[in-house]
Amino acid sequence: MLKVVNLRKEFDTVVAVDGVSLEVQRGELFGLLGPNGAGKTTTIRTVLNIIRPDSGEITFDGKPFSPEMWNIIGYLPEERGLYKKSKIISVILYFASLKGLSANEATPLAERWLERFGLKDAGHRKVEELSKGNQQKIQLIAALIHKPQLLILDEPFSGLDPVNQILLKDILMEVRQQNTAVIFSTHQMEQVEKMCDNICLINKGKIVLGGALRDVKKKYGTNSVHLEFEGDGSFLKQLPTVKRADVYQNYAELELVDIGKATDLLGKLDTKLNLRKFEVVEPSLNSIFVSVVGIPKEPEVKAEELLLAPKKSSVNKDPRVRKQLLSMIGGSLLAVVLLAFEIGKPEPSFTLPAVVIAAVAFSFYRYLMVKSRVEKEQRESDGEKN
Description:
Elements: E1 2-11, E2 14-24, E3 29-33, H1 40-47, E4 55-60, E5 63-64, E6 73-76, H2 88-98, H3 103-116, H4 132-144, E7 150-154, H5 162-177, E8 181-185, H6 189-195, E9 198-203, E10 206-212, H7 213-219, E11 224-230, E12 242-247, E13 251-256, H8 262-272, E14 274-281, H9 285-293, H10 303-308, H11 319-343, H12 351-385
Parallel strand pairs: 3-8, 3-9, 6-7, 7-8
Antiparallel strand pairs: 1-2, 1-4, 4-5, 9-10, 11-13, 11-14, 12-13
Helix pairs in contact: 2-3, 2-4, 11-12
């Protein structure tokens, strides 16, 4: 269905997408994953020809993208865009018309989708009257109403409560059964684990992990242990046999250095915690994500460094200093103009430029004096505050 080969897109000096290749078949749910700023949305928009790639190849059923293909694609953008003063039914019918459906064709479909999303009697209300989650449903209906062959959803679960997340999951599974290719970008790893056949993890514009979800999990082994307990589990992160630990109130996910040490670990934990559950499991997609991408750390700044760091001076913002500075700059420009004018004469006279240069020198002296006085005032003021 969709094939992307060696896609690349640069913005000035930033490489947003770097050699991305992927393939999505009909009837497949494909998860496009990555941290913020990884290049997921740029990849999607490039695939849809909203942004032109610098290089690479994008084909649908073996054919290059053409405007006619918009009618077989459904797209939910990351930035939601609805006409908030318009009636809900009018908005849906408008989006349907962009996909080639007439009002007579689209109206019963819109009513059916509104009922499915629990908005049966909301068609004649204005969009702005809906909650954020319900507005999200309208945007989803706009992406689904024309029965697309390729459905691309950017953060589709955003703004939906748990009940409506389950509803959307059920709808996507039904769409898949209708032989539609579905790509969705999301940060919700648990949804990807439950739904996707294949995944692609992008970081800094490059694919760092991809393939069938079961194969990805198999690659990362079974070094994970899930715990349920009573007590203080904060010490789990310091254990030498634990490579990484996500510790919550009464639950923890551990990645062990060696799964062969699991029995020894159980013995140690049993003396410190009231264990309710100790289970060796395959790694979660969330733990794989963190393992591959890592957790960004901000540079540590010591308190003494903050105290000793030079403060940005606001002296030049003082009106007295600015006045002298502008006078000096204006005089310098005038001197340059006069010198250029005199040099162009057959018999140049440098008397007037010399006078202006002397005035500029005096302005510079005045600028330094005023600046020094203002700096002294600021230091005294800071001393009084401390």
